Amino acid sequence: MNPNLSRLHPYPFEKLAQLKAGVVPPEHLSAISLGIGEPKHPSPEFVKQVIANNLHRLANYPTTGGIPELRQAISDWATRRFRLNPGTLSAEHHIVPVNGTREGIFSFVQAAVDASGPAKVVSPNPFYQIYEGAAFLAGATPHYLPCDASNGFIPDFDAVPDHVWKECQILFLCSPGNPSGAVIPRDVLTRVLELADRHDFIVASDECYSELYPDENNPPEGLLQTCAALGRDDYARCVVFHSLSKRSNLPGLRSGFVAGDARILKEFLRYRTYHGCAMPVHNQLASIAAWNDEDHVRENRAAYRAKFNAVVPMLKEVMDVDFPGAGFYLWPQTPMSDETFALELSARQNVHVLPGRYLSRTIDGYNPGENRVRMALVAPLEECVEAAERIVRFVKDY
Predict the structure, then answer these.
(1) pTM over cut 0.90
(2) Last residue within a domain, chosen from 225, 260, 293
(3) Are residues 210 and 307 part of one domain?
(4) 225-261 pLDDT, tens per residue?
(5) DSSP sequence for 49-70
């Protein structure tokens, strides 16, 4: 077996299951899960209808690069959303459909890392665990950049030593951030691009939460948008990952895309022809319908906005918590150890959250996720409000 498999850490939810082993919550309280970031809003009916109308396409092998109509729909959406110069993000050369961002991120690292010499994959800390696992299995070494309240939960890229950048092959960004919801501004993205040019590494921006934002007139900036503003219409050294999972409440569709530098994506597509991960044709057709519609996305944002507006003021009574820049997570400080908080909240109130340390690594004795928990406001509004009431009661009573 691949010896790098032994380097993989248990997934956060495995750790959570071990933590709560043997816990028996009160029978009179129904379980409310705020731990897993799985959207619970209804999937759009018109998308499901497209799938139903095209089940005969099960008889067709899908192509690795996707049908031209899907790539064009993605190109049109990204150009509109991120104010790209028309024609610069071509459907033919700058877009590769993937089966969700998890699969896309993992496979991209396998294709992009050259492990014949020193190779680092740099990521925020806390982070989406796929960044780390993909790095290990590609033969690279992860390097973690702490994100905490002192830096607005955005890495201090200027504090990274040159010797790290020298070995960096991929820098992962996550904006809006998981778990903090922090949005990286244009000046910081510009600085990242300067570093990538100087040290010749790929900037891989995970933007799967980009469409969940509170202000309809102020959507988060994306990496390609910064490129366009700087006149970098070739998107050199840049790739972005997007998905329909959060935007359109379609996590089971497994549909997303990678877009950016045509030179990089040409080689990535070549890798994928062997990887065997083409998206089924009926899913591609459903994805076209989703990317072409914004009404359901605005409704989705409104539903999350209502939950944040209801829950945050309640939790502020007992916790250090605030509205995120975007996304559907809260990242509050806990009045006790994050593991104790998660364990006792489960045992006493049957509300389930994820300890922050499970999303982070301890580096030089410091774990930026300690004494925080991640709460995903994915449940219906009434359940989120009830969960907040139970959390307030728990903190006051504990």
Answers:
(1) yes
(2) 293
(3) no
(4) 999 999 999 999 999 999 999 999 999 999 999 999 9
(5) HHHHHTGGGGGSPPPTT--HHH
